[in-house]
């Protein structure tokens, strides 16, 4: 699926909104931002996500049908094409690093069980919950959550360490 058409002047204008000094680091978007932190770029009288435009530029203006663009660096403002990959919505959800807002552990998939006075791990893949625990220490629960995600085939960011 063609994403959109961009002229040479559109691409030149896009490139003015970030610095690309180091290909291994995030390229911070300095233009407009969506309230959720994603960069936005004005193109043909519409606003497009800057990271999607950056991905499309490096892939002949093509994003596969049914795919979203995931930040493997987990930085919503990054437009470095080396930090972007096309994934399904489900994969994007699975790769998400942050925990839920109501989490007391601060670690994705780890929560406190009052009835057991211990930490519990729960990871969901393909709508099925996989549980481990209980664990007396948060560190052991965190390690178990990481191992479980690895067992289930979750990627940690194409060489980038998952920060949990």
Question: Could you list the spans in which at least 5 consecutive residues all have pLDDT below 50?
Answer: 157-164
What is the count of helical runs? 4
How far is the N terminus from the C terminus? Answer: 33 Å
How many domain regions? 2
**Shape type:** elongated
Major β-sheet profile:
3 strands, antiparallel
Mean pLDDT over all positions: 84
Secondary-structure class: alpha+beta
Percent in strands: 15-25%
CATH architecture of the largest domain: Alpha-Beta Complex
The CATH class of the largest domain = Alpha Beta
CATH topology of the largest domain: Homing Intron 3 (I-Ppo) Encoded Endonuclease, Chain A
Oligomer: single chain
Q: Note the run of SSEs as H and E.
A: HEEHEEHEEEH
The strands making up the biggest β-sheet line up spatially as 5-6-7
Provide the gyration radius in Å.
19 Å
Q: What's the number of extended β-strand segments?
A: 7
The share of residues in helices is 10-25%
Brief account:
The protein has 164 residues and is α+β, with helices and mostly antiparallel strands. The protein contains 4 helices and 7 strands, in the order αββαββαβββα. It has helices spanning 8-15, 50-58, 89-95, 138-151, and strands at 40-43, 46-49, 68-71, 84-87, 110-113, 118-125, 128-135.
Question: What can you tell me about this protein's structure?
Answer:
It is a single chain. With 164 residues, the protein is of the alpha+beta class. The chain has 2 domains: 82 residues, Homing Intron 3 (I-Ppo) Encoded Endonuclease, Chain A, CATH 3.90.75.20; 55 residues, no CATH class. The chain is 23% helix and 22% strand. It has 4 helices and 7 strands. Strands 5-6-7 form a 3-stranded antiparallel β-sheet, with helices on one face. A two-stranded antiparallel sheet has the order 1-2. A hairpin with a 2-residue loop joins strand 1 and strand 2. It is elongated. The two termini are 33 Å apart. This is HNH nuclease domain-containing protein. InterPro entries: His-Me_finger_sf (IPR044925), HNH_nuc (IPR003615). Pfam families: HNH_3.
């Amino acid at each position: 699926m063609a994403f959109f058409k961009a002229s040479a002047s559109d691409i030149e204008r896009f490139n003015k909104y970030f610095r690309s000094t180091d290909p291994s680091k995030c390229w911070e978007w300095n233009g407009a931002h969506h309230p959720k932190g994603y960069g936005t770029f004005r193109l043909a009288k519409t606003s497009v996500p800057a990271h999607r435009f950056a991905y499309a530029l490096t892939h002949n203006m093509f994003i596969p049908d049914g795919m979203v663009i995931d930040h493997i660096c987990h930085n919503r403002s990054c437009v470095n094409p080396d930090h972007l990959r096309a994934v399904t919505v489900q994969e994007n959800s699975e790769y998400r690093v942050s925990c839920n807002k109501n989490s007391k552990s601060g670690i994705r998939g780890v929560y406190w069980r009052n009835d057991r006075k211990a930490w519990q791990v729960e990871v969901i893949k393909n709508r099925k919950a996989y549980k481990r625990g209980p664990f007396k220490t948060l560190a052991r629960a965190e390690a178990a959550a990481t191992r479980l995600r690895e067992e289930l085939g979750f990627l940690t960011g194409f060489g980038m360490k998952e920060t949990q």
